[in-house]
Design brief:
- This protein has 266 residues and is an all-alpha fold.
- It has one domain: Orthogonal Bundle (MetI-like fold), CATH 1.10.3720.
- Helices cover 82% and strands 2% of the residues.
- The protein is built from eleven helices and two strands; from the N terminus they run αββαααααααααα.
- Strands 1-2 form a two-stranded antiparallel sheet.
- α3 packs across α11 and α4 packs across α10.
- The chain starts with a helix and ends with a helix.
Length: 266
């Protein structure tokens, strides 16, 4: 039974959409209120933060660190996606190996990653290599786990048909596996991005010579609140835009799956 009457408003507006718009507005209002209560020394206003962020791009004090962080993020995320999807599919194709490695993977995933950061520094040294490795270590697990879990949703009939048709491994991957696991895979990619981003920023905050995380700690130590909040705003915007893109893809996949289900039910 449809609940459209409970969640829809005139003009194609929905309560959910209004709520999504209201949340950032409420956050901005609370931010402004906090700045007025605690003063500019403790918290800059949203307008001051925005002006500092614009100056950061115009004057260039933020650009170099942003490029370092984004470059590190792209490299680490691509490695996490490729390795996570490949291992997840390989384990998902074998029930035996999945049962052997799944407890190990889940157990490792539950470890607080920051406690292992000194090991990455010892192995890779102080620099971009350790940031990439630490970001990969954060992001690979959700991609791997959700890919492996999605593999269990593949209909055995589809795999048997692909085998009977003599499809190559690449053809099976492209024509059978990817379409079957795509909804779960996209969720894993979204979570993997978020955690990779988190790992890189944390790594830069504690052991890096450049990057937004490094600058964030520098401005915290020197109490430059406006620049500190400007960097935080940039990090939040990057995460929000990428996650919004993933949510759009997920919504389209759900609508497509719903349409397919409706057609099949007719």
């Amino acid at each position: 039974m449809s609940t459209r009457s409970e969640t829809s408003l005139p003009g194609n507006w929905s309560i959910v959409r209004i709520g999504r718009i209201a949340v950032p507005l409420i956050i901005l209002a609370l931010w402004q209120l906090g700045a007025e209560v605690y003063g500019q020394f403790a918290l800059a206003t949203p307008l001051e933060t925005f002006e500092t962020m614009v100056d950061g791009f115009q004057d260039g004090w933020m650009v170099e660190d942003l490029l370092v962080t984004v470059t590190t993020l792209i490299v680490a995320y691509l490695i996490a996606v490729v390795s996570g999807v490949w291992v997840g599919i390989m384990l998902g194709l074998s029930r035996f190996w999945q049962e052997v490695f799944e407890p190990v993977i889940l157990g490792t995933y539950s470890i607080p990653k920051i406690t292992l950061f000194p090991i990455f520094l010892l192995i890779f040294g102080l620099g971009m290599d350790s940031m990439v490795a630490f970001g990969w270590f954060h992001g690979v697990f959700p991609v791997l786990i959700l890919t492996m879990s999605a593999m269990t949703t593949i209909d055995d009939t589809h795999m048997n048909v692909a085998q009977s048709l003599g499809l190559s491994q690449w053809q099976r991957f492209k024509e059978v596996i990817v379409p079957s696991i795509l909804p779960g895979l996209v969720i894993g990619l979204r979570l993997g991005f978020s955690l990779t981003f988190l790992g890189i920023v944390i790594g830069e905050m504690f052991a890096a010579r450049a990057g937004l995380g490094h600058s964030l700690m520098l401005y915290m130590e020197t109490v430059q609140v406006d620049r500190m909040l400007a960097i935080i705003t940039v990090l939040v915007l990057i995460a929000a835009v990428i996650n919004a893109a993933f949510y759009i893809i997920e919504a389209r996949l759900r609508r497509r799956a719903g349409s397919s289900g409706d057609v099949a039910a007719m």
